[in-house]
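Collaborator request, handled under Task 6.
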Amino acid sequence: MTVFAAGAVLWRVIDGKTMVLVIHRTVHRDVSLPKGKVDPGETLPETAVREIAEETGLAVTLGIPLGTTNYTMPNGREKVVHYWAAEATDEAVKASTFLPNGEVAALEWLPVKKAMAALTYERDAEIVERFRMLAAEGVTRTFAIIALRHAKATPPFQFVGPDADRPITERGRNEARSIVPSITAFGPEKIISSTARRCRQTVEPLAKALRLPVKATELISQDAFEAGDSAIRDVVGKRVRKRITTVLCSHGPVLPEIVREIALATGTAPAATVSRAGDLPVAGFSVLHLSVDRPGSGIIAIETHVPHV
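Structure tokens returned to the collaborator:
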């Protein structure tokens, strides 16, 4: 049975130089990247943030996905580790309560190439090399637009009244709760929803967890889209200009257009992965990572997540 784990390349800029965090593990007596196994019921992004906090004392949000490593453990089981880049802010570093313990003996910030040389395992160095390539392009500082489809709603044939008033079902409520930890891992600072009841209900648990207000707008609603009255380009353009991680909760027919407008606004070349990012199941979401410093350099990475219920 495959063991899944998640972690990150933690980075910060010190005196103008990009540094990466490596951990010196106590029992294993090796140098590696912070990571850990998925707990039952957890999602990979949730695991990454939790493990980083436990091993380093640093509270972070996830940036660009850096891929996976795959290897066989001494017990013969296969292990797959998913990695992201994650910036350690000055505030997070100051707030860290790390002390050497039975799992991690020490933390060490190193220049990127020195970190690659210090790591015990080649597979970890390959992950850092992917980060180095992004750093060389100047696109390590990122924000995201999270395109979210509303959770399972009452079918139209079972509902009497305007389509925009259809509520989410019990399954939908479970889905809405289940996606909160995954989305929270990316650190959203704004939540924008279609005015449709099913969208507003979907983001309620997320808004409560993050203590953020929900801005409801007709401009990304299905009714406006089908009537030709939507203003998706305006909404997306503003989000790209603001450069803060934002959740856009909308509908199946509208989300491909939202993704298309994100691609257009950032100069992204057409690609199958971009078009697929808008094709989401209920309560599914795609995280489109964009550069803070070079927002016109295109979508840096896309990852799609589905609810675990």
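The cover message to the collaborator said: "The chain has a mean pLDDT of 95. DSSP finds eleven helices and 13 strands in the chain. Please let us know whether this matches your experimental observations."
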